[in-house]
Amino acid sequence: MPAKKTAEKSAAVITVKDAPEMTKRGRRQVAEWMRKQADFLEFEGKAFSKRFTARYLYR
Fold this sequence. Notes:
The chain is an all-alpha fold and 59 residues long.
């Protein structure tokens, strides 16, 4: 009997807006922020709500 296929589930979605228009410094800052969020998820994940949204805001 063939193995039963399971549907894929999405655990995370990352959207980076206007990356080509960013400066190298801007892209570096966003990447550093994402690494910080990743560390927070890894080490403090139990503190998150069921659905967690993080936004990188800038001027």
